[in-house]
Design goal:
This protein has 437 residues and is of the alpha+beta class. It is built from 16 helices and 16 strands. It is 42% helix and 19% strand. The chain binds one RNA strand of 77 nucleotides through helix 2 and helix 14.
Amino acid sequence: MPTFQTLPGFREFYPEDLARRNFLFRLWRQTANTFGFAEYDAPVLEPLDLYRAKSGDEIEAQLFSFTDKGGRAVALRPEMTPTVCRLVGAKASALKRPIKWFSIAEFYRYERMQKGRGRCFFQFNADIFGEPGPEAEIELVALLVQCLCAFGLTHEDFFVRLSDRNLWFYYLEALGLDPERARGILGAIDKYEKLGDEAFKGYSERFGALTPELKARILSFLEIKSMTALETRLTDIGSEKLAARLADWKHLLDALEAMGLSRFVEVDLGVVRGLAYYTGFVFEAFDRKGELRALAGGGRYDDLVEKLGGPALPAVGFAIGDMTFALLLEQRGLMPAIAQGPDVYAVIGGAAERRAAFADIHALRAAGFRVEYPLKEVAFGKQFKAGAESGAKLALIYGGDELAKGVVKIRDLGQRNEFEVPRDQVLATVRDFFSRG
RNA sequence: GCGGUCAUAGCUCAGUUGGUUAGAGCACCAGAUUGUGGAUCUGGGGGUCGCGGGUUCGAGUCCCGUUGGCCGCCCCA
């Protein structure tokens, strides 16, 4: 007999794994709902061009892509952003503003596995469309923070680094760099934290080496880690664009402070995110210890909806991945042991008692209680043991003695006491027990 | 794509310079136990030792290849 393995990087969810996954999804969904975001979903398989249009041909190496039987070049979705841009773009004029949407979905990337990264993973995605000002960022950064805090994480566990590609572009423009060179510099900055001076190699090869003064001014901007440092720096330069941008920054940070979220947010212009489609504020969430890869990332992408064939529509969004997030929860002891025991366990004597038990079991289930019973006849002792192990709160005992008296014995497995009720009052009694908590 | 490391039961792991029928704990099932709690005791099922080839009288053990896991690099939407 041949043996089959799970494809590399793919995951299987046994019941206890799925319980953990659902725990994440449940809290994310609840949190998004409290922020007034509406949930959507979309196809797993998309036209390959949807991703080519956004990110270029080289992206194909990291896609699960193939040609379908109709000769179409298709790919398993590696992210949600192009898809949601299409959905919103197609009906933009009919959608009530603000457009606040979220999804929880699985994505696929043909990559090498590492800690916190596989070839399939889930992401919580949240986006706001149609809002050009920092009000959208306020809402999304707050949602991001709350999506983590909902699990018991605090500002001691994670933080959000906030940066701004516009600020960089305006600053580099003020330094006399054209847009193409500015993009080259941003590419270098994205890698600077990891590579140091090596990061500028690619830029130098393309545009020639930076003068020492220019490089110093760029590096000092990169090291800005506070609003006051930013203000001091920008007033020196006296650019109108930069002054207007600074007002947006103040608006954003002030609102987050009003929400009590300042402890979670740090200004860090070293974050620019490699992706070229971001157009304004960008942000990433990390664990405080710096042991894990990014927990979440996002930013503004005002041009993408139009680029993908829709109307011009400003947008901001972020995504939280499930793998790194689960690692963090486990590290901090915040992943609960999820035991989903039944409410009621039925202990059944013999074949005759079984018929009576079945009637009540089904009535209880129809009323919404979770009820289990031994599928086959087993000794009473084993049934009590199984009932206790199952985590049930109550045992209903259907023995010959009880049936002869027309009663059911109900045992409170927590209190370890028991009492008898007439058969026709079983449902009412159970309902009363659980409504008391 | 590159490098390191590992692979024996569902899980965690033993397995001696290569030597008879590959073991333990946990988990699972059953019995002790014909009406009351996670215990105990006894027993049981479960393995192509990742896969393929080679060396050898003989390979879980040595050699080569391969697949897969983990960790890191590249990348990270």
